[in-house]
């Protein structure tokens, strides 16, 4: 059973996933009626009897004093175990809930009830609390799934007054997660910036508070809302890992606290410091989900668990194979015309592309980035007859039709802004700062949301589009809504929620439509936006060496079928680095393969090689996009490294060597996750035309040999050119 009551009073519960147990207890402070909802256990699966024993250990619901830890008159270590530590009472840590009622910034919550809720393929536990004096109700929701070790939590905050009372919410996190005591902790997260997103950050977790946040109104390039934490001996494929991720695409904050007395907790939610939300009488505020997962198979196993959950439980069409796309941006920039787009489409179709996407420059008077955002009709000089003829031609070539849009932005030089200057985020008596010569539309306004849905619906229907690339190229500034009669700070939440609403409504109206999330590169990639989109653009930097580090960071949480990965021209437009076409393809094959180069400049030999590589990718696409991923070798983009994917009987290994003249280092690449007793047949040794590689010396290998000894990739030879790569394909022999 997913939900198990462990006591007669119904205040101690075990929530079970396929491989873990999560125990929640409601503790009452001695001499008061104030309660704290505590995490009593989170780890490997326990029987009900064992879970009951775990809860009775020194910080059980009958003893919430943090027994076993050093406590003084200046500290109360037990607060770190609370599911939602409030601002009030004997707490001095990071509050997950901070509410001011009638100028009183403190909560004292008492127990109301526990409600177990059985759902079709998941079970939920709702714990309701209320303030002892003010009309404030708090519901802690926890959901467990039958097919995933990921646990979902969120919070509902209600103002139960029948008359207006001044209620201000300064902080409402989705929940706090306690990571059990350890001698030391190791963590993984990502940091970065535009064009260098997803840089893996790892090391010893310091004592104190480690905060990742975005104040930009989008997820942001410089951090991503997740963290993984393990003990001092954790590695890629061994050791316990507790991981937490927030499903939200606006501003956010995640704080990990390692207390000096022992123990660690992670709390996260929407918003950032400084914003306050007014909660009117009778209203409620519901947080986004915060997700947690425990696993005992290292950071790699943790990643695979998240990959499975994202494909099964988050993506709208997670089981679909993503098409090979061509995007025209790097070939044409803003110089978009029907003849040259059709010329590129013919070349892309000849390579095997299945989807053709027209990027920026097709609308209004869009000759550069200084005008026309908001004027979503075909450029009258470039497309005097509209876009239908272009996309009819694309479909005649056997490809789907896609288009770039930026619905949240407006150019001051646009018809839309001249008619509706009040539609942008702004504050009275303050300037309207521009970035990229554009402003942000206030999607918190229902009329803006409805306007966007109307023109997007019409655009998709009229052009019979299969795909939209939804971009967002600047952060919020002057984030206000003067004529709303409400707090300006509501826009930080409602903007994002209305983006979600628009995407969901658009998909409902066009079930075959697929969406890509983009925000100036990887500025909007998270578990919130992936509920409504199919893939995301990780970075505007398409240099394959830099992309290896970005994709390595992205792969920690997100599966390969959400990563849009392009082959572009060499030298690279961002870095000036020259790399072989083969290396560029093999890096892009680690996600959803796309091509974004100026094909009119490619030689016949390059076009022939590219066509063979696209064909090779299609033969292994399902395994890469849906298989179990293993990260092998050294640091991607820096040292010899590899990526392995396993699905059913197929094994795909992508091998990279950016520095060919490295005379020392590994010669053999050990594989992981194979059946040790099965035989594996080498189907391809790397050359896209089928020429044998090093593996052809033996046609069949035992899984145990491949895992104990490994394979010897040609690309790992100690002397040779820089930027060598290989694709190795093995098939398990039935029997």
TrEMBL record:
Membrane spanning residue stretches: none
Enzyme class: hydrolase
Residues noted as binding substrate in the record, renumbered to the chain: 194, 359-360, 436, 469-473, 518, 540
Domain annotation Glycosyl hydrolase family 36 C-terminal: ranges: 644-730
Top-level taxon: Bacteria
GO MF annotation, one: alpha-galactosidase activity
A Pfam entry, by short name: Glyco_hydro_36N
Keywords: Glycosidase, Hydrolase
Region (Disordered): 53-72
EC number: 3.2.1.22
Gene3D superfamilies (UniProt xref): Aldolase class I, alpha-galactosidase from lactobacil brevis, Golgi alpha-mannosidase II
Active site: 471, 540
Known catalytic reactions: Hydrolysis of terminal, non-reducing alpha-D-galactose residues in alpha-D-galactosides, including galactose oligosaccharides, galactomannans and galactolipids
Domain named Glycosyl hydrolase family 36 N-terminal: residues: 39-279
InterPro entries: Aldolase_TIM, Alpga-gal_N_sf, Alpha-glycosidase_related, GH, Glyco_hydro_36, Glyco_hydro_36_C, Glyco_hydro_36_N, Glyco_hydro_b
One GO-annotated biological process of the protein: carbohydrate catabolic process
Family assignment from sequence similarity: Belongs to the glycosyl hydrolase.
Protein name (record): Alpha-galactosidase
């Amino acid at each position: 059973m997913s939900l198990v009551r462990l006591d007669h009073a119904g205040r101690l519960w075990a929530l079970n996933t396929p491989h873990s147990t999560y125990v929640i207890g409601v503790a009452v402070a001695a001499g008061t009626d104030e309660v704290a909802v505590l995490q009593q256990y989170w780890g490997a699966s326990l029987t009900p009897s064992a879970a009951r024993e775990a809860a009775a250990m020194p910080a059980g619901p009958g003893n919430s004093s943090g027994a076993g830890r050093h406590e003084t008159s200046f500290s109360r270590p037990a607060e770190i175990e609370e599911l939602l530590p409030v601002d009030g009472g004997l707490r001095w840590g990071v509050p997950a809930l901070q509410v001011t009622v009638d100028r009183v910034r403190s909560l004292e919550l008492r127990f109301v009830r526990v409600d177990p809720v059985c759902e079709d393929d998941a079970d939920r536990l709702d714990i309701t609390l209320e303030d002892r004096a003010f009309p404030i109700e708090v519901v802690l929701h926890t959901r467990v799934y039958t097919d995933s070790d990921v646990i979902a939590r969120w919070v509902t905050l209600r103002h139960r007054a029948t008359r207006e009372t001044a209620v201000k919410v300064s902080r409402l996190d989705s929940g706090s997660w306690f990571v059990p005591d350890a001698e030391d902790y190791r963590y993984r997260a990502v940091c970065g910036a535009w064009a260098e997103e997803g840089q893996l950050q790892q090391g010893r977790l310091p004592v104190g508070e480690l905060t990742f946040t975005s104040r930009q109104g989008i997820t942001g390039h410089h951090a991503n809302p997740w963290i993984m934490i393990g003990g001092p001996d954790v590695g890629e494929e061994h050791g316990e890992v507790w991981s937490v991720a927030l499903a939200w695409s606006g501003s956010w904050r995640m704080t990990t606290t390692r207390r000096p007395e022992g123990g660690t907790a992670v709390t996260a939610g929407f918003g950032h410091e400084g914003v306050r939300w007014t909660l009117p009488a009778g209203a409620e505020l519901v947080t986004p989900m915060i997700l947690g997962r425990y696993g005992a198979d290292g950071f790699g196993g943790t990643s695979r668990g998240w990959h499975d959950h994202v494909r099964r439980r988050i993506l709208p069409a997670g089981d679909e194979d993503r098409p090979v796309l061509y995007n025209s941006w790097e070939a044409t920039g803003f110089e978009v015309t029907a003849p040259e787009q059709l010329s590129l489409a013919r070349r892309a179709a000849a390579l095997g592309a299945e989807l053709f996407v027209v990027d920026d420059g097709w609308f209004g008077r869009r000759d550069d980035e200084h005008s026309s955002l908001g004027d979503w009709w075909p450029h009258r000089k470039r497309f005097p007859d509209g876009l239908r003829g272009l996309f009819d031609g694309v479909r005649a070539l056997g490809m789907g039709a896609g288009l770039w849009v930026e619905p949240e932005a407006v150019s001051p030089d646009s018809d839309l802004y001249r008619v509706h200057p009040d539609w942008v985020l702004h504050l009275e008596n303050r300037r309207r700062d521009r970035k990229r010569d554009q402003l942000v539309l206030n999607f918190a306004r229902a009329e803006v949301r409805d306007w966007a849905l109307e023109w997007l619906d019409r655009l998709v229907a009229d052009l019979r589009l299969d795909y939209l690339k939804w971009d967002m190229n600047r952060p919020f500034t002057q984030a206000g809504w003067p004529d709303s009669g409400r707090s300006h700070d509501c826009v930080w939440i409602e903007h994002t929620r209305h983006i979600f609403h628009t995407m969901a409504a658009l998909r409902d109206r066009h079930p075959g439509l697929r969406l890509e999330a983009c925000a100036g590169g990887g500025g909007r990639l998270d578990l919130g936006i992936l509920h409504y989109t199919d893939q995301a653009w990780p970075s505007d930097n398409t240099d394959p060496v830099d992309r290896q580090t970005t994709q390595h960071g992205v792969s920690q949480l997100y599966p390969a079928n959400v990563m849009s990965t392009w082959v572009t021209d060499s030298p690279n437009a961002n870095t000036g680095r020259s790399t072989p076409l083969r290396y560029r393809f093999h890096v892009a094959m680690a996600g959803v393969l796309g091509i974004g180069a100026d094909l009119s400049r490619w030689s016949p030999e390059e076009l022939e090689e590219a066509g063979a590589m696209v064909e090779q990718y299609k033969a292994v696409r399902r395994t890469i996009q849906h298989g179990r991923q293993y990260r092998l070798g050294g640091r991607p983009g820096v040292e010899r490294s590899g990526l392995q994917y396993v699905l059913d009987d197929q094994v795909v290994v992508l091998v990279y060597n950016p520095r060919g003249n490295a005379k020392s280092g590994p010669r053999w690449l050990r594989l992981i996750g194979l059946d040790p007793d099965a035989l594996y047949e080498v189907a391809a040794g790397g050359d896209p035309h089928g020429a044998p590689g090093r593996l052809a010396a033996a046609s069949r290998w035992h899984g145990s040999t491949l895992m104990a000894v490994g394979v010897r990739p040609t690309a790992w030879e100690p002397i040779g050119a820089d930027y060598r790569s290989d694709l190795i394909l093995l098939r398990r022999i039935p029997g």
